[in-house]
Amino acid sequence: MLGFLKKPVVVTAEINMNLVALTVVGLISRLWGLSNPRAVVFDEVYYGQFVSLYMKRIFFVDDSGPPLGHMLLALGGYLGGFDGNFLWNRIGAEYSVNVPVWSLRLLPALAGALCVPLAYQILVELQFSHCAALGAALLILLENSLITQSRFMLLESILIFFILLAVLSYLKFYNLQRHSSFSGSWWFWLLLTGAACSCAVGVKYMGLFTYLLILVVAGLHFWHMIGDQNFSNVSLMCHFLARGLALIIIPVAMYLSFFYIHLTLLYRSGPHDQIMTSAFQASLEGGLARITQGQPLEVAYGSQITLRNVLGKPLQCWLHSHTNTYPIRYENGRGSSHQQQVTCYPFKDVNNWWIVKDPRMQQLVVSNPPRPVRHGHIVQLVHGITTRYLNTHDVAAPLSPHSQEVSCYIDYNISMPAQNLWRVEIVNRESDTDVWKTILSEVRLVHVNTSAVLKASGFLSGASLPDWGYRQLEVVGEKLSKGYHQSMVWNVEEHRYGKSQEQKEREVELHSPTQMDISKNLSFMAKFSELQWKILTLKNEDTEHKYSSSALDWITMDTNIAYWLHPTSGAQIHLLGNIVTWASANVAALVYTCLSLWYLLRRRRKIYDIPEDAWQLWVSAGGICGGGWAINYLPFFLMEKTLFLYHYLPALTFQILLIPIVLQHLGNHLCRSPLLKSMFSALIIAWFSSVYLVYCTFRPVTYGEPSLSAPELKDLRWKESWNILIRKQ
């Protein structure tokens, strides 16, 4: 029974020493001197703010993309014990002792280092030689721009890592497809493909380009499977469902999980809250939640409310009135009603309070039991402090003459009767009997007499009222409304049940906080939908940056970015690529395109210059590497945003992988004689030596040391368009 103990347990393993060596040198190249410089480098000033907010659990919105990349950077800070206390206000600012610089930069550096063995593995899985794979890895290793970008608290190296991991995983899955479908390793690589794609998109939306590429390649491969009679219908359906699960359902689920973790971590109110809806703000700890906690849920006749405009950008504002009236005549000579002004005011104020009144009754308090207001009900809105009724009529608005003026009605005993009835339309209702709810309901207020919709027009025009209107935003009755715009939608933010019929007592009541116990927590999907929409639609004003560039500048590297400059010496760091590698990548792409067109024309004439398996290899490699370059580069010509050189790095990575593919193809199929092969090998060695020489030449501005003198810095300005910083003596 114990006979198996008579023999030793032997474990055998195959170790690819090329892979081990590449991983080690990749780690050395990215981790060496990682804390240098101990100062804020370029976009660390941007991402560092979010890391600090994660450490303090304060909610924020970043319109640059999803939260996974920010969370990974924050993980580095958490592992290093960062408390979030640092003022990220200036590039070049020295880090205080509480900032774990090495830890904050660690994950991007590890991701950049692992890109080296990933490049090797991708070419091996594409069925190219180990020599070609080694060449691809060394080109990634010696690419100055990739080194620079991976050594700081930035996201591009993490993005490139997940992109390459997704490509490698799919290639491994595809190669296993031929002989071990539905095996454990088959499932592992297929699931890892979907997970890596989701992570790439979760770091930056640029990852979506490679995800689409993999979906297209997977679709083409499955299309070929459909034509293979060796697969039964049941087998094809299983393959289809497996791919759908791994490449669509799981990535979507993971993408949602990134936001779930993000929202779970950031539960405290912060400065970014104001662009979110009242419901979202009320779900955060502190801020609006302290004001709205325990408010009545259902708006009733007699309710005292504040109405916030849903649009909320460029700033939030509330329906507001004050005792001042519109001037009798405006500056342009047009007349007004001289009624009490109604505006949209961007600050909380007692003049933002209104009372919901039943037109059939005189009381301004909530009955017992309360009578809720429902969709379609007619109400009057009474200004809490001045007790005048919200009104609109056929008088042109001050800034929007094609819209109606909105006012609080003053009876001047002239032929201008009050028109103060409003119909409540709940935009996000589930049925026509829905009750108007605090925070949750988004409503339009439609004027009964004229069908005009209450609208905060100042958001769209960008203009505020003149001095007589205290520079507040204009509110109008929009007459020509088909459908609705968010500027026409309002929600109740603060709410109490009015108890005082006397005006003096009611004014005291309006100044006091509310205390009632009803919860208004949003579901995760509601919060996700709102946050995702804000990320996609919220756009900061794009301004011209000193180091911004166009997509055309990237191919020839006619631009650079100065990341850091030592305050006293000539030490500096620049995002500059290895110019030999960049030029070679462009040549490789051109050669691949020309050769492919030549082969296609010849094959059309039934002339086959290379064997069929070599042709399939050539096409598949080009589809992955050439397609990866194109899909990560060409979309930037359609983008209206400020662009920088680092946006090109994912496309560049794919283009670099194309270099050894083209070189091996030329050596195998065009250099047929031993002499030509020897000459070609000698040229490759000379070319690779030049790549290494350029890497060494620009190493001081890649790592920031050693410090260079002014003449040495001038010698590095190989192009006039490069902005190498030289101090005046």
Automatic annotation (TrEMBL):
<keyword id="KW-0256">Endoplasmic reticulum</keyword>
<dbReference type="GO" id="GO:0005789">
    <property type="term" value="C:endoplasmic reticulum membrane"/>
</dbReference>
<feature type="domain" description="MIR">
    <location>
        <begin position="296"/>
        <end position="359"/>
    </location>
</feature>
<feature type="transmembrane region" description="Helical">
    <location>
        <begin position="186"/>
        <end position="219"/>
    </location>
</feature>
<dbReference type="GO" id="GO:0004169">
    <property type="term" value="F:dolichyl-phosphate-mannose-protein mannosyltransferase activity"/>
</dbReference>
<feature type="transmembrane region" description="Helical">
    <location>
        <begin position="9"/>
        <end position="32"/>
    </location>
</feature>
<comment type="pathway">
    <text>Protein modification; protein glycosylation.</text>
</comment>
<keyword id="KW-0472">Membrane</keyword>
<feature type="domain" description="MIR">
    <location>
        <begin position="370"/>
        <end position="427"/>
    </location>
</feature>
<dbReference type="Pfam" id="PF02815">
    <property type="entry name" value="MIR"/>
</dbReference>
<dbReference type="InterPro" id="IPR032421">
    <property type="entry name" value="PMT_4TMC"/>
</dbReference>
<feature type="transmembrane region" description="Helical">
    <location>
        <begin position="613"/>
        <end position="631"/>
    </location>
</feature>
<feature type="transmembrane region" description="Helical">
    <location>
        <begin position="126"/>
        <end position="142"/>
    </location>
</feature>
<feature type="transmembrane region" description="Helical">
    <location>
        <begin position="154"/>
        <end position="174"/>
    </location>
</feature>
<protein>
    <recommendedName>
        <fullName>Protein O-mannosyl-transferase 1</fullName>
        <ecNumber>2.4.1.109</ecNumber>
    </recommendedName>
</protein>
<dbReference type="InterPro" id="IPR003342">
    <property type="entry name" value="ArnT-like_N"/>
</dbReference>
<keyword id="KW-0677">Repeat</keyword>
<keyword id="KW-0808">Transferase</keyword>
<keyword id="KW-0812">Transmembrane</keyword>
<feature type="transmembrane region" description="Helical">
    <location>
        <begin position="68"/>
        <end position="88"/>
    </location>
</feature>
<feature type="transmembrane region" description="Helical">
    <location>
        <begin position="643"/>
        <end position="663"/>
    </location>
</feature>
<dbReference type="Pfam" id="PF16192">
    <property type="entry name" value="PMT_4TMC"/>
</dbReference>
<feature type="transmembrane region" description="Helical">
    <location>
        <begin position="240"/>
        <end position="261"/>
    </location>
</feature>
<dbReference type="InterPro" id="IPR016093">
    <property type="entry name" value="MIR_motif"/>
</dbReference>
<feature type="transmembrane region" description="Helical">
    <location>
        <begin position="579"/>
        <end position="601"/>
    </location>
</feature>
<dbReference type="InterPro" id="IPR036300">
    <property type="entry name" value="MIR_dom_sf"/>
</dbReference>
<comment type="similarity">
    <text>Belongs to the glycosyltransferase 39 family.</text>
</comment>
<keyword id="KW-0328">Glycosyltransferase</keyword>
<keyword id="KW-1133">Transmembrane helix</keyword>
<feature type="transmembrane region" description="Helical">
    <location>
        <begin position="675"/>
        <end position="695"/>
    </location>
</feature>
<dbReference type="Pfam" id="PF02366">
    <property type="entry name" value="PMT"/>
</dbReference>
<feature type="transmembrane region" description="Helical">
    <location>
        <begin position="100"/>
        <end position="120"/>
    </location>
</feature>
<dbReference type="InterPro" id="IPR027005">
    <property type="entry name" value="PMT-like"/>
</dbReference>
